[in-house]
């Protein structure tokens, strides 16, 4: 048999029909652009609220089995183009970054073509003791689903080019989010974006260009083909109806014996309706009947696969999860022929068609094993991998996903169990399937009767299992600790609060000039020239009219706030600890922490300790503050307190930071669950209310928070053994209403005590599981208003007020009919010339939108002008 090795673009046309014609004919979807698009892509359908169609690559090796030399060759060719673009000197300073799970193998192959640069891919698999060097959010997820975990912390810290590799460049959101996160940590002058296909619209292409100008960096794009997807009006609804009809027919046509139809839908939110296991029409080779099934061995267990000992080189990483260097590549190249020979020896005699099946993020090692096998045998070798992505399968030559195997996850994923899939493998006439997994995935679930190996064994005469050792990086030693951390700062020397009300685990930066004009800060933050915690906004000085609104709001809402304080405090005392240590997240959480302390004293005679600590989005919680707390209290008694939730960013930040702290310091017991006064975003279990109403402490800045600034984290001011910093604005004492706010709320405790205790009892018996409604709403608003960055969408009355006081607002979305809770927001909007847009069915009372493309003369972290 003549085999294609290192050939150019290749597409196996089935029955002479393009594998996107089925969707194109029914939905009117068109691919416009390069002539090669239909060679590279097919189309399928999925259930998705934003997009019905799915672009399916014929050369990626994920959903469609393909010659491994073709898959690797496409990545290598792109990598060579990047090397030509950069030149050898810049290529040696570059780092290649691929995206999990789909592009891990492609990114590796690009790094092979580049030849001189190390490779890293994002991952969903956290590793104990290894702190992330970055991460980014994946759409429709309320958790950080992509982590960057290089074994060498310096891998991403250089200033050479960063080459970002994804299979498809559709809107650019993922790349923009990644660059935004990494540029804030490790700024560099040049980025190269690589994709098999560039399918952006003109507007999305313009966004990348604008973003590059904003951060003052060069961003190049390299793609094998480019074009756009033309969607007729109503395509989303039509696609959803089509998917729903096929799902319904699938359920109706399933036989009593459980036989599956030739197509079915895999939904991410529900069990599978059926499994498309029938032979592919026109598949190359003869589809063989399913074997009679494996028989129990001597120990009574059923082996669904024969193991192959690869003799993987000791210490060689299984892929780029923690970094893969050119030296690693040389070791792999040397070992591949021997490992391929061991697989070949285990194949059934006379096998003509062999499939090598990789495993989710583990794409590269199976790909290279398949390529080596292709070179060393006469068999026709195909390669693809399993995936998390649920897709409709239709047995039609004009459809890209012909069959689907479904099975439970078998690697104990951090985000919980779920369905996994292998597409276009069932019924393809393979004489043998070689499943390649890492050792973390070689679990009982893999070998179970409903597991992957059993599912494969029903469709091929021989299943082989090759296990690659999961590479575990050496964890860095715990940092040396200072002999003694300073004692907390207290009023009146630091803050206008009484000394017993709160101890501040901060350092006093009152003598440092940190303020910058709002417009300059906004430009620096959005351009990546500075992190928001590296400077302070100029303190807003309220007008007499605004101050009058504050006092009126306090009078109207004091009882409502008092009841919420009682509810959350009673819940904490009942569930968390009878004598909790309150630790408020400075500064919005500090007034709430003081009120909770006062309630515990009023209702139960308790004198609870209360401290305020700093937490910074993207940087985590102050680790030195945690160390001090662990030295002076039992971490299990610590309850973190905040004012309110918006979309839940700080909730997630705290959970991730505490996980990293436990790994680095070995100190356990801190509970990441935050107690808040108001939880309109439905992000926590412990709250006083989930209503989105005006909390007067959100109306002002330091003058309602003990005259303390927002916290500061800047490398030249905060050393490794220092607490984060903040300023005490003593000069604003004349307008300070911090104690006035606390006293007004505390005075209402007696009248709400019974109602608060009764409400707390009801909540304790209820299901308070977070729904993350706020996060979903923020994602929707970000896309609907063309912002494409959830960090610029601030939901809720409190967060909207912060936007008006500290950032450059673009507009305010107000729930239709919202009343006096928004009086102060309307006044601020009028003073700043910001439009207020009423919106029906808004899940929050209001949402503040930060200007998404603010550019002006900006200052960076060093106070100097940013060059753009």
Automatic annotation (TrEMBL):
It holds the Pfam family StiP. Transmembrane segments: none annotated. SUPFAM superfamilies: PRTase-like (SSF53271). Residues 495-745 form the Cysteine protease StiP N-terminal domain. Keywords: Glycosyltransferase, Transferase. Residues 40-227 form the Orotate phosphoribosyltransferase-like domain. Residues 772-851 form the PELOTA RNA-binding domain. Residues 318-454 form the TRSP domain. GO terms for molecular function: glycosyltransferase activity. Residues 251-303 are annotated as: Disordered. The keyword Metal-binding does not apply. This is Phosphoribosyltransferase. It comes from Streptomyces levis. The lineage of its organism: Bacteria, Bacillati, Actinomycetota, Actinomycetes, Kitasatosporales.
């Amino acid at each position: 048999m003549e085999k294609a090795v290192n050939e150019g673009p290749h597409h196996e046309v089935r029955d002479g029909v393009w594998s996107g014609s089925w969707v194109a004919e029914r939905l009117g979807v068109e691919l416009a652009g390069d002539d090669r698009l239909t060679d590279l892509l097919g189309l399928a359908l999925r259930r998705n609220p934003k997009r019905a169609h799915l672009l399916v690559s014929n050369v990626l090796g994920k959903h469609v089995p393909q010659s491994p030399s073709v898959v690797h060759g496409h990545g290598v060719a792109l990598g060579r183009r990047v090397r030509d673009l950069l030149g050898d000197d810049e290529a040696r300073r570059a780092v290649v970054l691929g995206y999990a799970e789909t592009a891990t193998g492609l990114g590796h192959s690009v790094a092979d073509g580049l030849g001189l640069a190390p490779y890293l891919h994002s991952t969903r698999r956290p590793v104990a003791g290894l702190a992330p060097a970055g991460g980014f959010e994946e759409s429709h997820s309320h958790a950080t689903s992509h982590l960057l975990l290089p074994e060498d912390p310096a891998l991403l810290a250089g200033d050479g080019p960063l080459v970002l590799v994804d299979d498809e460049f559709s809107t650019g959101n993922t790349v923009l989010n990644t660059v935004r996160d990494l540029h804030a940590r490790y700024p560099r002058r040049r980025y190269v974006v690589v994709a098999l296909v560039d399918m952006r619209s003109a507007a999305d292409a313009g966004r990348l260009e604008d973003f590059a100008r904003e951060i003052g960096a060069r961003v190049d794009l390299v793609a094998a083909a480019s074009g756009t997807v033309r969607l007729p009006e109503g395509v989303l609804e039509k696609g959803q109806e089509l998917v729903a009809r096929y799902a319904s027919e699938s359920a109706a046509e399933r036989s009593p014996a459980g036989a599956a139809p030739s197509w079915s839908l895999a939904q991410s939110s529900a069990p599978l309706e059926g499994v498309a296991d029938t032979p592919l029409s026109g598949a190359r080779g003869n589809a063989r009947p399913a074997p009679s099934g494996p028989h129990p061995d001597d120990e009574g267990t059923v082996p669904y696969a024969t193991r192959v000992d690869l003799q993987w080189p000791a210490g060689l990483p299984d892929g780029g999860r923690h970094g893969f260097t050119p030296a690693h590549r040389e070791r792999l190249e040397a070992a591949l022929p021997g490992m391929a020979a061991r697989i070949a020896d285990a194949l059934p005699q006379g096998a003509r068609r062999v499939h090598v099946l990789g495993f989710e993020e583990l794409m590269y090692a199976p790909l290279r094993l398949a390529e080596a096998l292709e070179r060393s045998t006469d068999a026709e070798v195909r390669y693809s991998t399993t995936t998390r992505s649920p897709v409709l399968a239709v047995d039609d030559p004009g459809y890209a996903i012909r069959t689907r195997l479904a099975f439970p996850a078998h690697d104990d994923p951090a985000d919980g169990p779920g369905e996994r899939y292998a597409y276009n493998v069932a019924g393809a006439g393979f004489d043998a399937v070689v499943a390649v997994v890492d050792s973390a995935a070689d679990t009982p679930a893999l070998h179970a009767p409903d597991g992957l190996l059993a599912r494969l064994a029903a469709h091929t005469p021989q299943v082989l299992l090759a296990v690659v050792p999961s590479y575990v990086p050496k964890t860095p030693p715990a940092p040396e600790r200072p002999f003694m951390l300073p004692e907390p700062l207290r009023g009146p020397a630091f803050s206008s609060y009484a000394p017993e009300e709160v101890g501040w685990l901060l350092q006093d930066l009152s003598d440092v000039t940190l303020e910058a004009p709002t417009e300059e800060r906004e430009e620096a933050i959005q351009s990546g020239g500075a992190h928001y915690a590296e400077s302070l906004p100029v303190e807003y000085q309220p007008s007499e009219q605004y101050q009058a609104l504050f006092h009126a709001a306090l009078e109207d809402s004091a009882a409502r706030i008092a009841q919420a304080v009682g509810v959350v405090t009673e819940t904490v005392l009942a569930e968390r600890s009878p004598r909790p240590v309150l630790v408020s997240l400075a500064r919005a959480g500090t007034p709430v922490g003081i009120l909770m302390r006062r309630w515990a004293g009023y209702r139960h005679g308790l004198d609870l300790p209360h401290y305020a600590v700093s937490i910074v989005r993207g940087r985590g919680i102050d680790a030195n503050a945690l160390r001090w707390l662990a030295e002076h209290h039992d971490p299990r008694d610590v309850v973190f307190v905040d004012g309110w939730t918006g979309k839940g960013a700080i909730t997630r930040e705290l959970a991730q930071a505490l996980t990293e702290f436990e790994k680095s310091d070995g100190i356990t017991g801190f509970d990441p669950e935050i107690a808040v006064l108001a939880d309109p975003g439905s992000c926590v279990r412990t709250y006083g209310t989930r209503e989105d109403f005006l909390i007067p402490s959100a109306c002002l800045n330091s003058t309602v928070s003990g005259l303390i600034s927002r916290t500061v984290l800047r490398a030249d001011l905060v050393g490794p053994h220092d607490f984060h910093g903040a300023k005490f604005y003593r000069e604003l004492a004349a307008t300070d209403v911090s104690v006035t706010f606390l006293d007004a709320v505390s005075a209402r405790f007696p009248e709400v005590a019974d109602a608060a205790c009764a409400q707390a009892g009801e909540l304790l018996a209820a299901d308070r599981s977070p729904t993350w409604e706020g996060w979903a709403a923020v994602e929707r608003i970000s896309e609907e208003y063309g912002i494409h960055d959830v960090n610029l969408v601030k939901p809720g009355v409190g967060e909207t007020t912060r936007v008006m006081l500290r950032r450059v607002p673009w507009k305010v979305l107000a729930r239709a009919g919202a009343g006096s809770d928004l009086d102060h927001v309307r006044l601020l909007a009028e003073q700043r010339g910001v439009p207020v847009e009423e919106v029906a069915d808004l899940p929050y009372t209001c949402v503040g939108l930060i200007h998404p493309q603010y550019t002006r003369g900006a200052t960076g972290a060093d106070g100097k002008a940013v060059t753009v």
